[in-house]
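agent: user wants the structure for Cytochrome C assembly protein from Spiribacter salinus M19-40. delegating to structure tool.
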Amino acid sequence: MHALLMTLAVALYAAALIALLAGLRDRVLIARSERFGMRLAIPAVVVHAILLWQSSYTAAGLNLSVLNAASLLGWLMAVMLLLAAPRQPIQSLGLVIFPFAALTLLAAGLFGVPARTLVPLGAPVEIHVISSVIAYAVLGLATAQALLLAWQEHTLRHRRPGAVIGILPPLRSMEALLFQLLASGFVLLSIALLTGWLFVENLLAQDLVHKTVLSGVAWFVFAALLIGRYRAGWRGRTAIRWTLTGFVLLALAYFGSKVVLEVILGR
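agent: tool returned. relaying tokens verbatim.
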């Protein structure tokens, strides 16, 4: 049953991606393709949620091993995309989010292992974990937006707009949405770091010091980017580079430390 559900979810994510890609070929069909793609993604995230529950929930706590955490991040990004799509022109983010969600689900299903440390349910540290995952998801959406913005800028700069004109909003709208996501993600990341200081014991212990330092550096990167936007009007390539740098630091902070501890050191 688990394998069947995983195959179904991956197939639905793939179908949603194909629907969005189909709109690249014809500007007349883009709105219909986007609606169809979003509809296909709804049952995908429902099945994905069932699989996450089965693999992550235990009586002793939550299993947030590196692949389970990645799958949770992919699912949450897809859910946020579906919730925001009726109000914001962000359907194009599915070009990045849907394959990411499918790949992380597949990796967790095929190669996931039981976590050696479980997040206790109902403990204060759970607030930190939840706020961290939500912050990563919003900043992940911002990173996907930055990647699409980089693609859009590249094609327009080389005067080969092609399908970009059809599927993506105007450049200024793309940049405005990027900074909306960054601002929201920055607030959530600030909450995550604050709750970490409040609820996580021995935050600067050997196992957590790299995560703490890298997360703090990422916070300063996003803070500098938002200040630069407000004070100096940063945009375009500058905004893209700073966004990608901040998210890479966050990925190294969380997933990098987990890979070292769980996979390499076996702790």
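agent: one observation worth passing along. The mean pLDDT is 83.
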